[in-house]
From TrEMBL:
The keyword Transmembrane applies. Pfam families: UDPGT. It comes from Holothuria leucospilota. GO terms for molecular function: UDP-glycosyltransferase activity. PANTHER family: EG:EG0003.4 PROTEIN-RELATED, FI06409P-RELATED. The chain crosses the membrane at residues 545-564. This is UDP-glucuronosyltransferase 1-2. It comes from the Eukaryota. Belongs to the UDP-glycosyltransferase family.
Length: 588
C-alpha cells in the first residue's frame, strides 16, 4: 500500500493499526510531510482508546504495543526529498565513490529518497546497502575486459618514469573515451531518461570528473550540487562560480610543485598555468559536446558554464590537507568524510599488530587505484628496506610477492586502512597521496611518507610536507637509501607526529562532523535555494569582475588630463619662452 493510500484509508483502520502506521511510513522514506502530519493526528485522536486496550492484550501483544508506543514517542518529523545520484561512469576510482556514497548514506539516514543510476556492469559497486533507496540500470556497451585493460595501463604508468607525458596523455585519453561510451549508454536508453524526467527530482548529486552528470542534471532542469573529492575544483572552475583565485598565493599546479609561499618565477608560472589547463579541459570535454548537440542540452554553453550553475559545492578538504584561501559561501569544506572511529581488527591482523611490541607497525598502501607495484625491481626495493626495520609492516599488494620479503612484513590484497590508522600501535603510513588516506591519517594523527604517482597526489604530498606532517619521496628517486632515509626521519623525529596531531586536534574541534555539515547544507539548499549563497561575481564578466572597464576609463581620463596639461604647458611655453627677436620680426 502506498503512502497516499494510507492517508486516504486511515479512517478504516483500527486504533492499533493507526499507531503502527508511522513505522511503515519511515520504511517508505516518504516525501509527503503533510501525510505524516495527518497520520500522527489520527494516531493521537485514537490514543486514549489504544492505551486503554493495552491492559487487555495478551503478553505478546503487550510487547508489540510497548514497541509501537516507544517508536511513536521517539519519532521525529522528517523532511524527505527525492535525490538523484549517478554512477554510470566506466572509469572511476573506488576511493571517489567512497566520498559520494558516504554522503548518500547520510541523506538516506535523514529520510531522503536517493535514486542511484548505474549500468548493469557496475551495478551498485561503490554504493553498499544503505546508501541508496532505489536503482536504475542501463545496458553497458563496454565490457569488463575494457576496464581491466585500462587498469593495466594505470598500473603501468604508476611507477614508470620513462613513458613521460605521452604515457599519461594516452592513459587519460582512454579514460575520457571509455567515460564517453558509458555516458552515451544512459542517453541512448530512452526509457531510463523518461523515468528520470517524470520523477521530478529535487536535486542531483554531480561528480566533477564526470561531465555526463552535469549534462543529465541540466537536461532534467533540476538543481544540482557538486561533490569535489580532492583539493580543488578540477581544471580551475573557481572563476566561473565567483571564487577568488589569486595566483600570488593559491597554487594552481596540480602536479604539486608549489606551496602558498612562492618566489617571483613560481608566481609567474602559477599565473600562466590555468591557461594550459584550459586546453586540457577543452579536449577532455570535447567528447561530450556531441551529446549536448544531439540532445539539445544547452549546446551554446560549455561544460564549464554548465558546472557554474551548481547550487552548492562540497569540497573534500580541511585545514590539514589544503592551504588557507578565500572561498565563496556556496563552497563548503567537508574534508574527512570517510574518516571514522576505528573498528576492531580481525583476529589475524590484531595478533600481527600486537606482536610488534613497542616499535609498532607501518601501513603501506597505494590506494584503490593501484593495487600492486608492476615493477618487480621496485617491489624488491620496498621489501629489502622493510625487512631491516624494527617495526612490523602491513603491505597491501596484489602482485607477485618479492622473494626477499622479510618475516616482519605481511602482504594482504586488502587492508582496513581507516581501522589500522586508528590503532594506537600504528606509527607511519606510506601512501601514494590520495585525499581519503591523507585525511584519515590527519584524523587519527599518523605521520606520512607520500610517494605521489599521478594527478593531484603531488599536490597532497606537497601540502603534507610543507605543513610538517611527513615527507615526500619522488617515484623517480626510489632506492634503498632514499626510502630508508625518509622512513627513519619521519619515525624518529617527533616533529612530524606533533604536527599531524596538531591538525588532527583542529579537525576534531569543529562543531559538526564533515558528514553532518554536508547533509545540513544539502538540506539547506533544498529548502531555501541557492541565491543567498551565490556571489554576484559568478554572473559578472571578466571585464566587470576585475574592473578592467573602470581601469580603461580612468586611464582615458588620465590621458585627457595629461593631454590638456600638455596643451596648457605648450601655450605657456610659447607665450613665455619665445625669443624677443622673433616677436620684433612679427611686429615689423
Amino acid at each position: 500500500m502506498s503512502l497516499k493510500d494510507l492517508c486516504i484509508h486511515r479512517s478504516e483502520l483500527s486504533s492499533f493499526q493507526l499507531v503502527a502506521l508511522p513505522i511503515h511510513v519511515v520504511g517508505l522514506q516518504s516525501t509527503s510531510v503533510v501525510c505524516h502530519i495527518r497520520i500522527f493526528r489520527s494516531c493521537f485522536e485514537q490514543w486514549p482508546k489504544f492505551v486503554m486496550n493495552l491492559s487487555q492484550r495478551k503478553p505478546r501483544q503487550d510487547k508489540l504495543g510497548q514497541l509501537v508506543l516507544i517508536t511513536v514517542l521517539t519519532m521525529h518529523s522528517c523532511y524527505g526529498k527525492n535525490i538523484l545520484t549517478l554512477s554510470a561512469q566506466a572509469a572511476s576510482s573506488p576511493s571517489h565513490y567512497m566520498v559520494l556514497s558516504t554522503i548518500t548514506r547520510g541523506l538516506v539516514s535523514h529520510g531522503h529518497n536517493v535514486t542511484l543510476v548505474s549500468n548493469d556492469l557496475k551495478a551498485t559497486v561503490g554504493f553498499p546497502n544503505g546508501t541508496y533507496s532505489h536503482t536504475l540500470f542501463v545496458k553497458a556497451s563496454y565490457n569488463q575486459e575494457d576496464v581491466e585493460q585500462l587498469i593495466e595501463q594505470i598500473h603501468g604508468i604508476a611507477f614508470d618514469t620513462t613513458s613521460g607525458i605521452r604515457g599519461v596523455f594516452n592513459t587519460f585519453s582512454e579514460i575520457f573515451r571509455l567515460n564517453y561510451r558509458s555516458c552515451l549508454d544512459v542517453w541512448e536508453d530512452t526509457k531510463t531518461l523518461h523515468n528520470l524526467k517524470k520523477s521530478h527530482f529535487d536535486i542531483v548529486m554531480v561528480f566533477p570528473h564526470s561531465p555526463c552528470d552535469v549534462l543529465i542534471a541540466t537536461y532534467l532542469e533540476t538543481p544540482f550540487f557538486v561533490v569535489v573529492p580532492s583539493i580543488r575544483i578540477p581544471f580551475f572552475y573557481e572563476g566561473l562560480i565567483g571564487m577568488p583565485y589569486p595566483s600570488s598565493y593559491v597554487p594552481f599546479d596540480v602536479l604539486g610543485k608549489f606551496t602558498d609561499e612562492m618566489t617571483f618565477w613560481q608566481r609567474t608560472q602559477n599565473f600562466f598555468t590555468p591557461f594550459l589547463y584550459d586546453i586540457v579541459d577543452y579536449f577532455a570535454n570535447s567528447y561530450f559536446y556531441e551529446i549536448q548537440k544531439e540532445f539539445h542540452v544547452h549546446p551554446e554553453m560549455s561544460i564549464r558554464e554548465l558546472y557554474s550553475k551548481a547550487s552548492l559545492w562540497l569540497a573534500h578538504v580541511n585545514d590539514g590537507n589544503d592551504f588557507a584561501r578565500p572561498r565563496t559561501p556556496n563552497m563548503i569544506p567537508v574534508g574527512g568524510l570517510v574518516s571514522r572511529p576505528a573498528k576492531p581488527l580481525s583476529q589475524e591482523l590484531e595478533d600481527f599488530v600486537q606482536s610488534s611490541g613497542e616499535h609498532g607497525i607501518i601501513v603501506f598502501t597505494l590506494g584503490s587505484g593501484v593495487s600492486r607495484i608492476a615493477s618487480e625491481e621496485t617491489a624488491s626495493v620496498f621489501a629489502s628496506v622493510f625487512k631491516k626495520l624494527p617495526q612490523r609492516v602491513l603491505w597491501r599488494h596484489k602482485g607477485k610477492i618479492p622473494g626477499n620479503l622479510g618475516e616482519n612484513t605481511k602482504i594482504k590484497d586488502w587492508l582496513p586502512q581507516n581501522d589500522l590508522l586508528g590503532h594506537p600501535k600504528t606509527r607511519l603510513l606510506i601512501y601514494h597521496g590520495g585525499s581519503n588516506g591523507v585525511l584519515e591519517s590527519i584524523t587519527h594523527g599518523v605521520p606520512m611518507v607520500i610517494i605521489p604517482l599521478v594527478g593531484d597526489q603531488y599536490a597532497h604530498a606537497v601540502r603534507v610536507q610543507s605543513k610538517g606532517m611527513g615527507l615526500m619521496l619522488d617515484k623517480s628517486n626510489i632506492s634503498e637509501e632514499s626510502l630508508t632515509f625518509v622512513i627513519q626521519e619521519v619515525l624518529n623525529n617527533p616533529r612530524y607526529k606533533e604536527r599531524v596531531q596538531h591538525y588532527s586536534d583542529i579537525h576534531h574541534d569543529l562543531p559538526m562532523t564533515p558528514l553532518e555539515r554536508a547533509v545540513y547544507w544539502i538540506e539547506h539548499v533544498m529548502k531555501f535555494g541557492d541565491q543567498h549563497l551565490r556571489p554576484r561575481s559568478a554572473d559578472m564578466s571578466f571585464i566587470e569582475l576585475y574592473m578592467i572597464d573602470v581601469a580603461v576609463f580612468l586611464l582615458f581620463v588620465l590621458f585627457i588630463v595629461l593631454y590638456i596639461d600638455f596643451l596648457v604647458l605648450k601655450i605657456c611655453y610659447k607665450c613665455c619662452c619665445t625669443p624677443k627677436s622673433k616677436l620684433k620680426t612679427k611686429n615689423e
